[in-house]
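Colleagues,

For the teaching module next term, I've prepared a clean inverse folding example: a structure given as tokens, and then the sequence designed for it. I'd like students to try predicting residues themselves before seeing the answer, so please don't circulate the second half yet.
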């Protein structure tokens, strides 16, 4: 969230979230990735707009859509490498299932689901453009579990000849290259349209302020916890604790009072 609004690209979380909330772009995006035709997609009400509440969990611009035929798609852009992504996908899958079961449905009503991460790096270093994971028997890889869950990791840095030209052009565009076909040109135009929209500019600024406030609160809490540990150790003066923790002397003295035994 440290980019200026005018510098946002399709691969940036905010821009990706805004554009993918339009079925005009989200539907062909999914069709290109999965190599299938989708009649239509539906957005749950919670996904119609970006939630700007103070709850950090609700400020996520990832995309959750359904196709009206019992299939759920969760799409998220990933611009920084993280070995924890596989477990993050597991968490997302669990949230999808829990959301369905919380509505009182039987586990038999769990929908077919795709959790899709679009990465601008090669998480596994194999050179594939697409890594698709399904649950299968370890002793017999030809035996699928058929739990209707699929996890897909897209890699814009792929080097193999393993996807269609249409898919390559889309991944190249996400990676920052110029549009090469009608769809990627439409996406480029959508990016410019969002940049020219004052409402989205204001929403982006609001999100930036929200993230900054949460960051500052976290830094302040770390200072307090550090000072508390030093006070409890009892080896430093209040002045020294203030210097080492980054708190003011007044804050340290107040903490000392609070930590005194009753």
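(Answer key — instructors only)
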């Amino acid at each position: 969230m440290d980019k200026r609004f005018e510098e946002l690209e399709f691969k940036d979380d905010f821009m990706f979230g805004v554009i993918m909330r339009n079925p005009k772009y989200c539907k062909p995006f999914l069709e290109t990735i999965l190599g299938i035709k989708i009649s239509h997609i539906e957005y749950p009400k919670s996904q119609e707009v970006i939630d700007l509440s103070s709850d950090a969990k609700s400020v996520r611009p990832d995309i959750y859509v359904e196709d009206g035929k019992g299939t759920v798609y969760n799409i998220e852009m990933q611009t920084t490498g993280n070995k924890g992504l596989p477990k993050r996908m597991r968490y997302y899958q669990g949230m999808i299932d829990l959301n369905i079961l919380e509505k009182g449905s039987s586990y038999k009503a769990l929908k077919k689901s795709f959790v899709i991460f679009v990465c601008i790096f090669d998480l596994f270093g194999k050179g594939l453009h697409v890594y698709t994971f399904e649950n299968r028997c370890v002793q017999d890889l030809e035996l699928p579990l058929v739990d209707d869950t699929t996890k897909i990791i897209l890699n814009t840095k792929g080097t193999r000849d393993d996807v269609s030209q249409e898919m390559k052009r889309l991944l190249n565009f996400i990676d920052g290259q110029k549009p090469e076909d009608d769809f990627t040109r439409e996406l480029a135009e959508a990016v410019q349209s969002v940049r020219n929209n004052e409402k989205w500019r204001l929403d982006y600024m609001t999100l930036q302020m929200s993230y900054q406030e949460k960051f500052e609160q976290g830094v302040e809490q770390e200072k307090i916890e550090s000072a508390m540990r030093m006070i409890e150790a009892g080896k430093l003066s209040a002045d020294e604790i203030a210097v080492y923790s980054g708190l003011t002397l007044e804050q340290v003295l107040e903490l000392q009072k609070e930590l005194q035994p009753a």
